[in-house]
């Protein structure tokens, strides 16, 4: 039965990609890049594990069937609602290539420069705090640091600076200012992504550069090119994770090109194993957060810890400090512990939060991706930028947790909306006061003299 459910997850992922491509005729439809991630996490990875006997060390057959049933239902909900949001766009509704006014381009560049400049400043502060660039990246998975979460997370704005530069250039904006912004804001992010071997930042930057260039145009890259680029990016992500301990300044860079270990190694840090453990531990203990973790990301996280040191404890979610609340109760429920720093994937994270409501929540996420894609195709402008940002963060959503997505989305989406709103605002014109004409109280008739009149 478990093998049948694995085949069902694979089939759903493949059918989602084919349906999206066939109906939308858009290689950037969300199911084209989210579908492979779902198939990798919920079909390919557990298949490789079970063929090597790795899952028998942790679960019995009933547990495997329960977890995979939940995963299949989650995939089905996401795919169905994403397609239901509107995958077929009538030709009359498709917009033409974006043609931005000079004033709009200037404002987008200014807004992107401000956002990217703040991100660059935050990144530089974290690097200076640890003694400079070399010290920051002279050990594996190290990087810069600052005690303030605002400084640490502020470097995300580098991505917004890159996106605004790519957007204006693809819409016919000035060449050298756009390329300069891409280099100034992109290289610090790229160095952090590669030298720390971080898969999320690497994927996010690649998605913004590629999709940001094409999303504002009616033309799309060929399907074969997108497939090859996606395969190369997927291999690069796995390569970085596999060789994380060997990637740093001063390393001998003894690399492994075989990335199978990250998939086949049956340890408690494996995403599928850890995610299944999260589901079973929560189910056996009957413990769910009922949106408290997610609300904490919006209401509590923005408050500095220096002001409120016990903010998560006082809010009732002290578990957030350990694997975002997904690693509790493993020992009691399963007799083994999940690896520190592991992530369970989207379905398990939603299960811990809202129990079986995880299925409609998966549907809601799919509908959001489909709706924003449709708006980007039909209306463009800020909707296109929002779709690129959601696409760049999709790897965090599928492979990690909603906590990894919520604050990143807010930090990038809100400044993006504000920048576009200012860029598209029409200058206020001062109207001249209207001149009122008053009609006379009575109409006078001209005096006409006739020949019979006597003076």
Automatic annotation (TrEMBL):
The chain crosses the membrane at residues 65-87, 108-130, 201-216, 223-241, 354-373, 380-399, 405-424. It comes from the Bacteria. Keywords: Membrane, Transmembrane, Transmembrane helix. The keyword Transmembrane applies. This is Oligosaccharide repeat unit polymerase. It comes from Silvibacterium bohemicum.
